[in-house]
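Hi, here's the filled form for the chain we discussed.

Project: internal
Contact: R.S.
Residues: 67
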Amino acid sequence: LRAQNYVTVVHGKTSERTVFALEKFTIPDDKQLVIEIAEKEGGRHQSFVVDNEDIVRANVIDELSIQ
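And the returned structure, exactly as it came back:
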C-alpha cells in the first residue's frame, strides 16, 4: 500500500486529494470493497463501492514517479 499526499486534516472551505495505490487483486462475486470516510467528531460520512470490474481494469504501476 502506498499513499500520495496523505491528508489527515482538511480545513473548512478547502479540498484535498489523497491517492492510494494497492497491489492488484480481485474480489469474489459475493463480496464488495467499500471505502468509507468519516468526519472526526462530526456527522458527515461518505462511502462508495468499488466493483471487481473496476479493479480488473485498473492499470498496474511499475514505477511511481512523483513530481
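Let me know if anything looks off before we file it.
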